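Teaching note: in complex prediction, the entire set of molecules is handled at once rather than each chain in isolation. The prompt given to students was simply: 'Predict the structure of this complex.' The entities are:
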Amino acid sequence: MSVSRAIILEDLRRAVAGRQGATDIQTVETSASTRQQDKEAIFVGKNISSTSSSTFAAPTDSGPEAAAPAPTSFSGAASDLLPGLDAAGVVARVCASREDLARELAGLVREHGLKSAAAWEHPLLERLGAARMLAECGVAVTAPPEAASEADAPGVCAGIEGADLGLCAAEALLAATGTVVLAPGPGRPRATALLPPVLLVLADPATAVADLRAFLPQAREWRDRRDPSGLFCVTGPSATGDIEFVLVRGAHGPVTVAVLLADY
Amino acid sequence: MSAPNSCSRPGACAGPDTFARRASRAVGDPNQRAVMRRAVAHLAGLRARALAAIPDVEARRDRAEAVRERTLANLPDLLARLEENLARAGAVVHYARDAAEANGIIGALALARGVSRVVKGKSMVTEELNLNAHLGGLGIEVFETDLGEYIVQLANQKPSHIISPALHLSRQEVADLFSEKLGRTGQTAPELTMVARRELREKFVTAGMGVTGVNVAVADSGCLVLVENEGNIRLSTACPPIHVAVMTLEKVVGSFADLADVMDVLPPFATGQTMPGSLSLFFGPRRPGEADGPRELHLVILDNGRSGLLADPALSSILRCIRCGACLNVCPVYGTVGGHAYGSNYPGPMGTVLAGALEPLERSAPLAFACTMCGACARACPVRIDHPSIILELRRRAARAGRGPLPEVLARAYAFALRHPLAYRAAVGLLRGVDPGLRKVSALPGMEGVAAYLGQREGLGLKPPFVPEGEGGQ
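The expected output is the structure of the full assembly:
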């Protein structure tokens, strides 16, 4: 459809030229100079950072706190984490030690009667030994399927669908909204965070940033450095209000989301 | 919807399905009006509560408006950069001038890969394309997976709201619908949601293609951004081997900073949320070694009249629209007649404007004349689109094209009366004198139209304000 492409882009060029020609059109002249600046900013590919005027904590807001020697990783953005996660409808706990984590995992297994889990391969999960701990609680933990050339996604999804628990690790946390950022990749199927009724996300509180605005520059950097196929900012369990606006937790994705913050 | 008497009004029911006829039917249905009034008040209330908690709403609106205006001023460059970055990541970008081309592209993709089942995320642009019917005609099953959209698909209806497609249906209606179409149902909203969840699980896992819209595309990073709460969009793009995203060409912004400015207003103005349940950033198809995610990612960029609209300075600001639905929720006309009465691709104030710009005049002109000019939409809009001004312009154009609501001679008489206070008062006095007699007149044979007119009038009473409390004094 390269003909359509050429026609559409040509039509747009003419329309845009027309808009710039007609000065009497809109209210745009008030911001003409800033727009010019912004346009240049876009062209040289740098972020427009008029945005730090946001009243939401921008990354620089945590400057003083960050400058002081932080006694624990629960300073700055991370201190908002628990209220944020709570507001998002997430079951969140801080684990200050290996024993803490093992206890929380055992509690989760008991509470939800978990028998099977589909786990991601992720450095954080490895370091914490999470899969082993789950296995010690009697949970059959399945490693992610190999991306064999013939194995197609639907088959992978069907395999993960039967698991009681999806075990993932967060790349980052957005404190204000209690959001976990999940990055799919080899050994990290997207379906693991979607199909099992319970999603357990392990996270390092040191990866917390204030909010989406503070995170997006990282997303840009991620894309440039690691070339991921996607990034998912997940806030609470899947939910719907489509029937008479009754909030129902557990729409198509997880019904329960638990986040364990490994602060050790 | 039962409307026993409204179709007796001659002008409303003779001939094909018109806005007047549909609106008349909706207005005559007290159940529908009650459901609509509750629904829009709820949505408007969610937004008002969210905005009350945001200290810098006006600054956010300024930034969002500026981002969208920058988009309109740089569209060809932004699209070229988006295309380049997506292509570098392995995605394929298609351009479609109109619905037929877009449907042709998507249908051909599906047929070439032997796709027999498609799962869809909710998307208004595919409604504009009428894509489901097109794919159905090719023998491909299409399943809407957003709960509201799934419900209206089962009911063989169109969405009545751009973010809450089934808000016109009561829980009981959904329960009956599920019972009839699925053979199982529930009573409560959680039970009904669970029925849909079970029903659709198998579809996600077996579909050959996932089709979604796009909320925002980021040119600098070649990123498609989708916003949802249910997880159905992520599932539609995790399991099927092909992901086709469809967007109208004005959805692109420059950078992630621009995206942050849009996301500052989109969830609060749409649903009162700070963050949606899922904000998904798609950069390309799955990478080597990944076990799921689409093997192919296609983006279809649709024009369908937008490039012409961009060249029309009196109307083009509607292209700022980010589809939050706030204007629908505060519109007294939308709240009274509901989304289906419009009969256009999009309902409510933004739909009236888009219809006037993109759809045939005989369909769009009556919508423009139905507006009360109360201005609630413009006040509710996160990107400061001035819908009433645009609608006035649409009226001017419709009148010039002979599509005004009044015959020429009446319009002249009306204009004369408005220019001459004495004549105006005399005319109004005369009409006031006649009015009490209308009930008697309506009893005469052949005067059913007068009866229908009287039936539409509401009794005196306290009317709900156009804008919920606490919102007006910003």
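Point out the following to students. Chain B touches chain A through 108 residues (CB under 8 Å). The mean pLDDT of chain B is 91.
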